[in-house]
Design goal:
63% helix, ADP-ribosylglycohydrolase fold, 314 residues, binds manganese (II) ion
Length: 314
């Protein structure tokens, strides 16, 4: 039989689908594990981390939030709220997303960013689903929760993906520099899910730098990165491209301290699909909160199966 035998095509498509779903799951677990791992050392300097932990390499909880071991923070929780909204609504709807974030805030989350709280409060007062454009909104708060957009829009064209991201981002953060950085993260996740190499991810980072030179990451080592997205992504890119595996990249980025749960989360959503589910250390998978882990797996699967790439029945 020729290669166009429909049974062979179907089998090939089946394998591809399975692999894509597994990489989506790896992205979601990477996000949650990076969050749980980094939260322990959030707001510490690299020196403080060395003094207290040597090299921080296990999910142990604690930190300024006094977390139970395995517990995640707002980075993962807001992603899950966004993802559930996309699934419930069957699309990217600003009102549904704002409502999902507002519902999440009602659960009295363990932490919540200032810019996020302000955006949700604006929505609650007057139903506004987009904050005004603001130079001071170049925080990483919309980037840390963008994974559901990356999975749900897989196979869409870049303009549609960018629009979907602006819709979710502008509920709380409205800034062109942040939008550009977040779109790059989305494209890196999608490229990794589709089987991209570190070199192809690096090309996306270089493209961002060409358009927005403040993201240059080839100069000094980014330590103690703050909530400013430029610092966050410089640290993520340096850790990603300066290592050769998921575990070493994650350990590198969280030991830089600063907004370590968020650098961990963003790096994890990229490194997960790049290196695959099998590259995630078992000790991290075992320690991650069980309910969180299950929800991440389910949501990753549902979101990617609803994407333009996989929902068209090919
Ligand atoms: Mn957090
Ligand atoms: Mn954080």
């Amino acid at each position: 039989m020729s290669a166009s035998d429909p049974r062979i095509d179907q089998r090939r498509a089946g394998v591809t689908r399975e692999i894509l779903v597994e990489r989506a799951v790896a992205a979601y677990l990477g996000l949650a594990i990076g969050d749980a791992l980094g939260a322990t050392v959030e707001f510490l300097t690299p020196r403080e981390i060395r003094d207290q932990y040597g090299e921080h390499r296990d999910i142990i909880g604690g930190g300024w939030l006094r977390l139970r071991k395995g517990r995640v923070t707002d980075d993962t929780e807001m992603s899950l709220a966004l993802g559930q909204s996309l699934l419930d609504k069957g699309g990217v709807d600003a009102g549904a997303i704002a409502e999902a974030f507002s519902e999440w805030m009602r659960t009295k989350p363990v932490d919540i960013g200032h810019t996020v709280r302000r955006g949700i409060s604006l929505y609650r007062r007057g139903g506004e689903t987009q904050v005004p454009e603001n130079d001071y909104d170049a925080g990483n708060g919309a980037c840390m929760r963008t994974l559901p957009i990356a999975l749900f829009t897989l196979g869409a064209d870049v303009a549609q993906i960018a629009a979907a991201n602006r819709t979710q981002a502008h509920v709380t953060h409205h800034n062109a520099l942040a939008d550009a950085g977040t779109l790059t993260v989305i494209r890196m996740v999608q490229t990794a899910v589709l089987g991209g190499t570190p070199a192809s991810l690096r090309a996306l980072a270089e493209e961002l730098v060409a358009n927005h030179p403040s993201y240059r990451f080839d100069r000094k080592r980014e330590e103690n990165p703050g909530g400013y997205i430029v610092e966050t992504l410089r640290a993520v890119f340096q850790a990603l491209f300066g290592t050769e595996g998921l575990e070493s990249a994650m350990i590198d980025v969280v030991n830089r301290g600063g907004d370590a749960d968020t650098t961990g989360a963003i790096l994890g959503m990229i490194a997960g699909p790049l290196y695959g589910l099998a590259s995630v250390p078992k000790r991290w998978l075992k320690t991650l909160d069980g309910a969180t882990s299950r929800t991440c797996r389910q949501q990753a699967t549902s979101l990617i199966l609803k994407s333009p790439l996989l929902s068209s029945g090919t």
